[in-house]
Fold this sequence. Notes:
- The protein has helices at residues 6-15, 21-24, 29-44, 64-76, 94-97, 106-110, 116-119, 140-144, 147-159, 174-180, 197-208; strands spanning 52-56, 82-86, 121-122, 128-131, 162-166, 185-191, 213-219.
- The chain is α/β, with parallel strands linked by helices.
- The chain has a single domain, classed as Rossmann fold (3-Layer(aba) Sandwich).
- The chain has a seven-stranded mixed beta sheet with strand order 3-4-2-5-1-6-7, with helices on both faces.
- Helix 3 packs across helix 4 (64-76).
- The radius of gyration is 16 Å and the shape is globular.
- The structure holds adenosine-5'-triphosphate and magnesium ion.
- Adenosine-5'-triphosphate is lined by residues 1-4, 9, 12-13, 16-19, 57, 60-66, 88, 91, 93, 169, 219-220.
Amino acid sequence: MRLMNRKSSQLKNKINLINLVTSNSPNSRISEEYRTIRTNFLGSVDGRKTQSLIVTSPNHNEGKSTTAANLAISLTQLGKKVLLIDADLRRPKLFSAFNIGNSLGLSSVLTGENRLEDAIKNTEIKGLDLLPSGPTLANAADLLGSILMKTLIETATNQYDMVLVDTPPVLEFADVKIFSDYCDGVILVIRYGKTESNDLIQAKKLLSDSSKLVGVILNNKR
Ligand SMILES: Nc1ncnc2c1ncn2[C@@H]1O[C@H](COP(=O)(O)OP(=O)(O)OP(=O)(O)O)[C@@H](O)[C@H]1O
Ligand SMILES: [Mg+2]
């Protein structure tokens, strides 16, 4: 799917913003496509417990954050209570997309500086809370695979209908694979014209090992 024309796309890329199209233009064709993905996803997991879902991609800039945010919004439009977690501790984007401060967040909860309930913030979207990434840490990538993340996801799924986690690229950070074991399902995003087929095969292989891959989203298809 294509969210913008070329000019506005270039502008967005420059300032690195995420387009919350499902909130800004809920009746657009693109929002409809996100609803289709949501419906397909909910249909494909019926019966199985799939409350926590990670969104990843083989490499950078393939649309993980955009997909995670818009999928989370479209789930709230079904009346679900959703927590979106920005677990990309190196290139966090969701705090700015939702206009939320980033001084407390996942990193400060994992290091024990804050309590989870203090770091989670309400967004302007009804039913959607965000756990921003928090301040950047030197050992950020290692924290994702830590057992503390497992506990955090368990706590979050007790409080929300759905927990969606935006992560770093799976081919670049081995901890994404470890972290996927703590969640119920994985969505793999690939970008039209960017993701190399070998990288897709490699990423799918890595993730399929855990049998949690619920779907692959082709982003930015014209
Ligand atoms: N379908 C799309 N149409 C147009 N622009 C898009 C689309 N999807 C993503 N973008 C733009 O591409 C850039 C990268 O998207 P995004 O931040 O969602 O990717 P990412 O995989 O999370 O990147 P990173 O690896 O930096 O975390 C952003 O500027 C975003 O607005
Ligand atoms: Mg991202």
